[in-house]
Amino acid sequence: MDFKNKVVDLVSSQVDLPKDKISQLIERPKNEKMGDYAFPAFVLAKTMHKNPAEIAKETAANLTSTDFANIQAVGPYVNFAIDHEKLISQTLDEVLSEKEHYGDQKLGEGNVPIDMSSPNIAKPMSMGHLRSTVIGNSIAETMKKVGYTPIKINYLGDYGTQFGKLIYAYKRWGNEEDVKKDPIMNLFKYYVKFHEEAEKDPKLDDEGRAWFKKLEDGDPEAVELWQWFREVSLADFKRIYKELGVDFDSYKGEAFFNDKMQPVIDELKEKGLLHESRGAQVVDMGEDENPALIVKSDGSSIYLTRDLAAAIYRMNTYHFVKMLYVVGNEQAQHFVELKTVLKKMGYDWADRIHHVPFGLITQNGKKLSTRKGNVVFLDQVLGDAVDLARKQIDQKNPNLANKEQVAHDVGVGAVIFHDLKNDRIENFDFDLDEVVRFEGDTGPYVQYTNARAQSVLRKAAKMGQEPNLSNNSLNDDWSFSVAKALADFPRIIARSSDKFEPSIIAKYALDVAKKFNKYYANVKILTEDEQINSRLALVEATSIVLTEALRLLGVNAPKEM
Ligand code: ARG
């Protein structure tokens, strides 16, 4: 039950303001004794030519509702105090009957392609690609929960001049067995070697260019090698995706758009948008802005042109209602250009495109860079996290059944949760020990809280007791604090989907876990009195919400750990 909406409805019956405006104005009084929601009346003082306290008083006097224990004016505020018992019983009832569908809602519909992960072939997947993968995946799950049809697209970086260099490097220094054994590691080694050698001998760059030209002209050897590199790299990436539990609806990468760029260039020309600037073809971005590069002076196409072709292709294929690009903030300008050029072409649907940027992951405060070879291998990060989780489980619960699966869920879940718990735009430093801690603001803490709830339910079942709301309602402050948090879940999901911000759900899960742990510490749940079944209902409802919140983040919730 959404009490805030009720407050909005009540206020709107009395004052002349649009509902969304009222909704923005509603506050949570700092002191809970003052009520649960407050409407500040001073915004009306000017239009109504009255003093705010008087407006508050009159408004409060005109309002009655059975959902609130008390509605009264306090100074310039109209305060609303929820009927605690009612909130608890209605919320728990709703969660228990809707189960994992609690929080489902219809905020929209239609296809939403999400361009996410998109690593580059023959290079290790970076921390940035990891972020894009887990943020994109969580947004996809959340969009689905509110009615949309997400389409997860992995726009692989599988084309470009670097493949000419790689082909040359492979033929010169590489061998098949090594690539088969550890594709990305070795292909990347050849690529780094190429750059080292090219510094000493600039002629190598010509060799690389020549092989790229062959690739473009369809030379069978070049094409075959390129396809092979793509295939083995993708197999490597898929291993990581499997660990993360993420899959994709499309792997149409950059190469797929090779033959779809010329039509875009022609269209730009036809529409009079293209002009020459220092030998290159560009589109003007307006005063004070650098023009957007469409064709380079050597005739080769570029990133933006490919993305234009891809966006148009996706519109024609999916007729999307929104399209998201989950890509690092450093590419912000690129997406501004993409949208601007589409708009200039007359495509109003460009407004449906959102760049969903995120910050950098650093290590010991330093930026990680693939080019310099100081890369983090993600398999290793995930493997280390699972090892650490296993160690902790060995200490806390050595006899746990299916320990391997739980260690995996906790280790990988910890990495994902850590990535999602801060506003995505923030940069953060990666410290594995901190990520996998069982206490503090971590994924394992939330998982552990859920496992604790499950353990209470198991114990109760052995006593012949089960969750049931029918007999006795709860009215204590600890229960109220948990139930009120559970009642917020639908609104949290709505906000997260609206802002494309998984951290809202992650922070919420931490909040629910903390409140539940306070409850657990202060209330004897398994005492066999007349309220035991109601308390078990609260425990089960908490577990349902925590499990579903974690699922929306892409994190598994083991029942025991
Ligand atoms: N492969 C690119 C990179 O690693 C990311 C691609 C993002 N998506 C896009 N449509 N441009 O930087």
Automatic annotation (TrEMBL):
One of its GO terms (cellular component) is cytoplasm. It is found in: Cytoplasm. SUPFAM superfamilies: Anticodon-binding domain of a subclass of class I aminoacyl-tRNA synthetases, Arginyl-tRNA synthetase (ArgRS), N-terminal 'additional' domain, Nucleotidylyl transferase. Its EC number is 6.1.1.19. A motif ('HIGH' region) lies at residues 119-129. It comes from the Bacteria. GO terms for molecular function: arginine-tRNA ligase activity; ATP binding. Pfam families: Arg_tRNA_synt_N (PF03485), DALR_1 (PF05746), tRNA-synt_1d (PF00750). Residues 446-561 form the DALR anticodon binding domain. InterPro entries: Arg-tRNA-ligase, Arg-tRNA-synth_N, Arg-tRNA-synth_N_sf, ArgRS_core, DALR_anticod-bd, Rossmann-like_a/b/a_fold, tRNAsynth_Ia_anticodon-bd. GO terms for biological process: arginyl-tRNA aminoacylation. Belongs to the class-I aminoacyl-tRNA synthetase family. PANTHER family: ARGININE--TRNA LIGASE, CYTOPLASMIC (PTHR11956:SF5), ARGINYL-TRNA SYNTHETASE (PTHR11956). This is Arginine--tRNA ligase. It comes from Lactobacillus apis.
